[in-house]
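Cast an eye over this sequence plus tokens and walk me through the fold:

***
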Amino acid sequence: MSATSMPTIEGIELMTARVPLPQGPWGDQIHHVTDIEVAVVDVHGSNGQVGTGFSHTSGWCGQTISALIREIIPDVIGLPLSPRGLWQRSYKYVHDVGGAGVTTHALAALDIAYWDLLGKTLNASIVDILGRVHERVPLYGSGINLHMSIAEVIEQVKRWKAVGYHAAKVKVGKPDLEEDVERLTKIQEAVPGFPLAVDANQGWNFPQALRAFKMFAPLNLLWIEEPLPSDDIAGHRTLRERTNTPIAIGENVYSLNQFAQYIESGSADYIQADLGRVGGITGYLDVAALARAHNLPMTPHFVMELSASLLATVPNISYSEMTDGGRWGDLRIFAEAGREEGGDYIPSDRPGHGIILDRDYLKAHRI
């Protein structure tokens, strides 16, 4: 199908929902999350097909993102379907109000819908359109478990290993750092040889982070995630120069330029781009290409059902994150997607991204 025969964008519908966490609030060093807000976009093509996209926040500002989506919609109506072209046009359109953050969240919902519409137009999955590199994508178990007892965390990690997940990640950030060390030591004793990473959720200042890295060094951790505020690139660089444990970063990094600064300064070892925060599939693929150029693995954050699917098209991967209780199927945002099998994720073969939303549940929680 030539570019001139691509459908045009005839209309765009938008809905925002606030979805409660069925297992109760999530918490770490800096967050207390009671729900996920989701902006859902349906892009109608002139060929009668509809592409669906989404963006999310951890419980607040969903309506701010939706307001910006409404600003973008009139500028793209009537244009030919071209996900990358539309992304660049809209990025220029909104750049003056911010190059990253709310702007890239808004672009993500539209961009995912464009790619979904493209797949449905071509009657092919996005994975096959982009080029399938992996048939299966390895997953690691991730827990929002700082509040849990060490016995509970150990049972959680044992369950992940039994399922077949390839590694585990747990929260750190107890007021007493020695307690973190004790908890991690007990996990490794209970589940020997199982790769273990930790997530500090931006909760330390530099002296605290430096002390933590030095105390964690004998544990030979897979990585320490977000030890400092995510916009402190210089601090991460200094920390990386003075310690040996790998650093994972990207959950709260929003633009290609920000990732470039992290990578080129040697401040990041695992790249955890969140496709909802980097502008959708187009932004995610740009970050993946940048990481590949520096021989760094993509290890994306959240929305496993789509993130893991996209990893099937990326050569430079380590794992995708399976958040315990945070799968969008568990949250009833998604009614159908790909499937897990033996600790791996297998993307859907449906045309487009292959994800079907639970529309009735989302409408029941519409803002």
Notes: The chain has two domains: 3-123, 128-358. The two ends are 39 Å apart (CA to CA). The domain at 3-123 is CATH 3.30.390.10 (Enolase-like; domain 1).
